[in-house]
Design a protein that fits this description.
2-enoyl-CoA Hydratase, Chain A, domain 1; alpha+beta; globular; 42% helix; six-stranded mixed β-sheet; single chain; Pdz3 Domain
Length: 715
């Protein structure tokens, strides 16, 4: 199929795949392809010879080296087709039910055969039908935009149709789009646009953009979508990146990009903030948070705010990127309010994110007690980093997680802290070796993690250095954003009973991916084949339990802002299941059972009487209700009343949280522009950190006494 798969290349693949010196992250952000500056020639939209080469290479890699052994059969074919259709029309807004029936009857049991033949022509034929449906639908939308809408009619709109049935005919889809456009019109009115002509112009541009973006798809785009439908049918972290998207990936990994420091993803027709990068402009400002939705982007303080609803992800990313020290304005829907929330505008100053911004940092919290304050050290660790390049200042100046945390422990000891919190919230991973060496700072020595490779081989990674940098009370604070290397560290600390794990159940990513250059495998002269990220191994804790899927369950669970099953690996299609292997030989540090009983009792008493947790529970309930809402009223009076009620409740919770945390009244809007935004997201983090410090102080006091029936609160 256009290339030679040499035995030398085969052995090179094995050598590459079995190396586990890699970055452990939740997943690399997968960007859609950059839109071409000019529409492509329709006659050229057919598979190219290189696409057959890419397909054959990837099928061989998956069948030979993927950790999950799958058979390319009719069942996988059906799953591939489902994922491909979903990638084209995730909100079921263009295809009709009979389109899906025809596509399914023709291809549901054939894609496995065409893949074996390295033939991806079916993907192009399906795309051509999709393109026709989009063109027809947008023409209809343009007619509907000019209608007069009656917002006193009591009817509902379903914005997320991913789980709804396909429209049975064109008339049914016309009705869906009528309500969609009416809702879009209403949302703009609720946001303060009073000129109906201006609203219609905004909507025309929005729908025209959808058509233009589809018209700018290239053959590489279609190849990538189809190969990733195959990859998604096997597992969520196996991904193909076209040459252009490979460039975007390496820009992200090098952290050389000047931007706002956020990982974005497409969510139907919206751009969702998936993760805030520690140390970046968004993180430092506190104005943008995970789960926020970006609906508009403007340049500098007075540039036009461009509506980006319905845009391809990479085009939104391109608007947000810009030179260092320049400003970008974002129109966002706050995550806690959902898609029907009140939009707000924020301004961020672009900057470059470097190691210093993401390095470990330390602080001290003084926890009040009857006998004076108990100083608790806090080490915040955004990522597991390792500086592999030689330092101009010599070896002693190299930066790494372990070196920096060791230094911080020394500084905290000088401040006479009696316990330490290692804050891993939002830490999505990093260097495996750093995760192991960091664990060694808190253990005498022993195994830290077990790795099972795709060929069945087991490797046990160990801490071989005797002695502990910190042997006192230890608490590890985690959340659903703590993944991979964070889970390895937290799991080892829990298994050895070296400290207590506090917070939310972690992400649950216990697999290893390796990024492979298809050009290297095929020995191609030009960089034209892209990269393939392949799942090649799975992590297991020393107790034999996998960190995959279930994550690390804390000893003490703090209320978070997400449902247990809503995020993380558990929410991903085809995620590898939890598994178990024989435990490694290790000796627990000591039993924490009695300490844990005491700490849990005191934690329960504090939570019951602390008004901050009452407000936090209200916040969680509000978020869940917003996410559960699937129908929006198209009555303008009702929508305005609902928004006003939400805003009032939001402000009330914020003031209650501030009062509970003994914080000053929130600044006025004008004062807030250049200060850390202490809205509920940031306040919640403070509430949880404060309680974690109380838990650490309980451990300290318990360690002073051998009478574990002692009640800390009661004296």
């Amino acid at each position: 199929m256009g290339f030679t798969y040499s035995s030398e290349g085969h052995h090179n693949v094995i050598r590459i795949l079995l190396q586990i010196t890699l970055l452990l992250a939740i997943c690399f952000p997968v960007f859609s392809a950059t839109a071409a500056t000019q529409p492509y020639n329709r006659a050229s939209l057919t598979p190219e010879p290189k696409h057959a080469q890419i397909t054959e290479l990837i099928v061989k890699l998956v069948s030979g080296y993927h950790y999950r052994k799958t058979t390319l059969d009719d069942s996988l074919s059906a799953s591939m087709l489902e994922h491909y259709i979903e990638s084209l029309d995730p909100n079921r807004s263009f295809f009709l039910g009979n389109d899906i029936e025809r596509i399914t009857s023709r291809y549901e049991k054939r894609l496995d055969d065409t893949l074996q033949e390295a033939d991806i022509a079916p993907a192009f034929r399906i795309f051509q039908l999709y393109e026709k449906r989009v063109a027809k639908r947008i023409r209809t939308a343009m007619d509907l935009v000019d209608r007069d809408f009656d917002f006193t009619v009591d009817e509902n709109y379903i914005p997320d149709r991913a789980e709804q049935p396909w429209a049975g005919n064109a008339s049914a889809l016309d009705e869906i789009w009528r309500k969609r456009i009416k809702n879009d019109f209403l949302v703009l009115r609720l946001e303060g646009k009073k000129d109906d002509a201006a609203i219609r112009e905004t909507l025309r541009k929005r729908y025209e953009t959808t058509l233009r973006h589809v018209g700018q798809f290239t053959a590489d785009d279609i190849c990538q979508l189809f190969i990733n439908a195959y990859a998604a049918a096997i597992g969520p972290h196996t991904t193909y990146l076209s040459p252009r998207n490979s460039e975007n990936l390496f820009i992200h990994l090098s952290l050389s990009l000047e931007g706002i420091g956020a990982v974005l993803q497409s969510d139907n027709e919206h751009t969702l903030v998936r993760e805030i990068i520690a140390g970046g402009p968004a993180d430092k400002s506190g104005k943008l948070h995970a789960d926020d939705v970006i609906t508009g982007v403007g340049q500098d303080r007075h540039g036009e705010l461009v509506d980006v609803v319905g845009w391809r992800l990479q085009d939104v990313v391109n608007l947000i990127r810009g030179p260092k020290d320049s400003q970008v304005r974002l129109k966002i829907l706050p995550g806690e309010a959902g898609l029907d929330g009140q939009a707000r505008e924020i301004t961020l100053t672009r900057n470059r994110i470097d190691l210093a911004d993401r390095a470990a940092s330390g602080s001290v919290i003084d926890v009040p007690s009857e006998n004076g304050n108990t100083p608790i050290g806090v080490i915040e660790l955004p990522t597991f980093y390792a500086q592999v390049r030689p330092s101009a200042d010599g070896d002693s100046k190299k930066r790494s997680t372990t070196r920096d945390v060791l230094r911080l422990i020394g500084e905290l000891k000088e401040k006479s802290v009696e316990g330490i919190i290692l804050d891993l919230r939002g830490n999505s991973g990093g260097s495996l070796e750093e995760a192991i060496s960091l664990t060694g700072l808190f253990l005498e020595k022993g195994p830290v993690v077990q790795i099972k490779k795709s060929n069945g081989e087991f490797t046990v990674k160990r801490d071989t250095k005797s002695g502990m940098a910190w042997s006192g009370p230890l608490v590890v604070l985690v959340d659903r954003g703590s993944a991979s290397a964070s889970e390895i560290f937290a799991g080892a600390i829990q298994d050895y009973q070296r400290g207590l794990i506090v917070g939310e159940t972690t992400h649950g990513k216990g697999t290893v991916q390796h990024l492979i250059s298809l050009n290297d495998i095929a020995k191609a002269d030009e960089d034209s084949l892209g990269q393939f990220k392949l799942t090649i191994a799975q992590f297991f804790r020393v107790n034999g339990h996998s960190t995959q899927y279930r994550g690390v369950v804390p000893d003490i669970i703090l209320p978070g802002t997400a449902d247990h099953d809503e995020g993380g690996e558990r929410a991903l299609d085809n995620a590898l299941p939890w598994a178990f292997v024989p435990p490694a030989k290790f000796s627990p540090h000591a039993s924490l059972d009695k300490v844990l009983t005491l700490v849990r009792a005191n934690h329960g008493r504090r939570v019951a009487r602390d008004t901050a947790f009452d407000v936090l529970r209200q916040e969680i309930a509000t978020r869940r209700a917003a996410r559960a809402k699937i129908r929006f009223s198209l009555l303008e009076s009702q929508r305005r009343a609902e928004r006003k009620s939400r805003e009032q409740a939001y402000d009330k919770r914020e003031e209650q949280l501030r009062a509970a945390m003994d914080l000053e009244k929130k600044p006025d809007i004008g004062e807030e522009e250049d200060t850390k935004d202490e809205k509920p997201n940031a306040l919640v983090l403070k509430v949880l950190l404060r309680e974690t410090a109380n838990i650490a102080a309980d451990m300290v006091r318990a360690s002073r006494h051998r009478d574990f029936s002692l009640t800390i609160d009661g004296g």
